[in-house]
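To assess whether ligand presence alters the predicted conformation, the chain was also submitted together with sulfopyruvate. Input:
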Amino acid sequence: MTNNAKVKAWLDDMVKLLAPEKIVWIDGSEAQLEELRAIAVSTGELIKLNQEKLPGCYLHRTAQNDVARVEDRTFICTTKKEDAGPMNNWMAPSEMYDKLYKLYDKSYAGKTMYVIPYMMGPLGSPFSKIGIELTDSIYVVLNMAIMTRIGEKVLAELGDDGDFVKCLHACKDVNPDERYIVHFPEDNTIMSVNSAYGGNVLLGKKCFALRIGSYLGMKEGWMAEHMLILGLENPQGEVKYVCAAFPSACGKTNLAMLIPPEAFPGYKVWTVGDDISWMKIGPDGGLWAVNPEAGFFGVAPGTSTKTNKNALMTTMSNTIFTNVALCDDGTVWWEGMDGDVPSHCIDWTGKEWTPDMGTKAAHPNSRFTAPAAQCPCISSEFEAAGGVPISAIIFGGRREKAAPLCYEAFDWNHGTFIGSTMASETTAAAAGAVGVVRRDPMAMRPFIGYNVGDYFQHWIDMGGKVSKLPKIFHVNWFRKDDEGHFMWPGFGDNLRVLNWIVDRCEGKVDAKETELGYLPYAKDINVEGLDIAPETLEELLSVDKEVWLNEVKLIKEFYAQFDTDGRFPKELYDQLAALEARLNK
Ligand code: GTP
Ligand code: SPV
Ligand code: MN
């Protein structure tokens, strides 16, 4: 399939290590993928769904111990420990390679090795980068075929001398005690073993496009971020693009595919990406973004025609569902879907399920893998080689208290400070406790492939290099009242806030200067058609000084853990001191 000497040498080594019975190159053809689907169905790895109602759709169930990313088993292995920094697990590369080679030894024996050449970013784009993933899982091949550009066309772009990220995956025995998701940024290498769940094994996604990507971005002067990309079109037909970073399962897919409320006739949201943004300085000196992915690996629970109709429509064909419930008619179900709760189904563990059991039929982190091209609101610029120009960057998280509905940073460094101090309640997207507030800077806590201090410094440095800087905002859709109800309706109604953000970028609307930044005047948030009390909106748009002085204390504690190596930008301490001074005035 290729004459690339680097690929051949690496494959020779890997074949010796893994000892597969057979080697299959993934060429990207529909015929080959269809063959693989048939094999997966015959072994039970995939369940074919009702092909009349859900053509081309399949269901997959993972092991019950293997349903989310595993942050405590994810490593960044740089020569120097300081280069991985205080927010990553680290082990010396030689020690880790030794450990892993033992685990991988002959682990493909009696199995087929699938070789997947893939590209992150549109074909022919200067943003794009190539990886080759080796896997023993057809599920991985079929997911990668949706999530990335794969096959012969990628090898053609790689050529005889091109470089690629070496990605090795083995399901092995899916043993959680020997599960490792490991990155060697200095060697362009990713190794994943003993898992078969999405984010741990679709190595183009978090491992390459974020962890290795962020490291390359720091070296090469660009940015890899955990951000959606959307275009907001106004009734005059003008489209402004924004990126938004929310932690895992905090609303990126939903915002990226938003359907405007009736009070906004002529407005439209176009999806460029729902999870990852690669940003470079463009010809006009501004920041331009591409979505390196080709599909969506989205959270199923909560997805309905009311919350995210576009996502639902995207998954009506050619989609792989993971850990959702199987209905008696061969369709799928999850908590929060439209219509009646099924009176009987097979739950995500493969057992009979009825509503009275009180358990969840779909896993809270169950997902769909669907081709982006099928999305009814996919942007015409989705494949644009040069990306789209970014007017605003939005940070946000799940905060029951504290964070207002929306505010704007005073400038880039202040925005970087706001991003660096982001906090959010944890979700089912990662193994561990759910609902605990933790700092998740730029929604990148689990995904920064190097020292977090250097990462913040890279943000500050980019601010000095980009001549047309996007404005930076912070939003919170998840404020709750004292009875525990969401105070803001969210979903499509988030357009009301998005519209204010774009108006600010255009200089069309005033704001009030507060200790936190510029807040919207309540009158400037269009609430036509919304059942929200004026006091509630005022509360959503207020700053509680007491709460924020406590936040300052917590941020100081958070920053203190980075003090060890002198790699934390002074600019951020200055921002923190300035916030404290404003609050004490
Ligand atoms: P990852 O794919 O894990 O990175 O997540 P994501 O950020 O794309 O999250 P997603 O859009 O899938 O949303 C996760 C959950 O949050 C879903 O169950 C949604 O229904 C819910 N959600 C999304 N937007 C809102 C909102 O505006 N308000 C409320 N209350 N819930 C929301
Ligand atoms: C996330 O957890 O942020 C995801 C899903 O987008 S995964 O690909 O599993 O990381
Ligand atoms: Mn994500």
